[in-house]
Amino acid sequence: MLAGAAMTQDKPAPNAAADPVLAGYRASIDNIDAALIHILAERFRITQAVGAYKATHDLPASDPGREERQIARLRKLAEDAQLDPDFGEKFLRFIIDEVIRHHERAKAG
User: How far is CA 56 from the centre of its chain?
Assistant: First the structure.
């Protein structure tokens, strides 16, 4: 057993098929996960177009001022939505870093 790992409880994990409440929660989570993937895919399609535009107009791959404004705006949205703003920022920074990487690749040709 790994140090600090939680001890297995005496009760086995509930079988979602046998527990309709758990199955309903999991179905909702699955739907949200699918929506997140589709939203991220659309976001990246748009940012790829931005990257191509920046490359053809010799613009820098990143815009630190905009990125900081976006992070501040989305931290506030996270707070309003009762989501940990630190988590929201980490998530957004991960996306921004990936977008910048795509923009740099577009600029390199």
Answer: 28
Domain 19-108 superfamily per CATH: Chorismate mutase (1.20.59.10)
Could you tell me where the DSSP H helices lie in 19-84?
A: 20-56, 64-80
Q: With 80 as the cut, is the pLDDT of residue 18 above it? A: yes
How far is Cα 47 from Cα 42, in angstroms, rounded to an integer? Answer: 9
Residue 91's CB is within 10 A of a number of other CB atoms, namely 14
The per-residue pLDDT for 5 is 47
In this model, does residue 74 exceed pLDDT 90?
yes
Query: Would you mind telling me the total number of residues written for the chain in this entry?
Result: 109
DSSP reduced 3-state for 81: coil
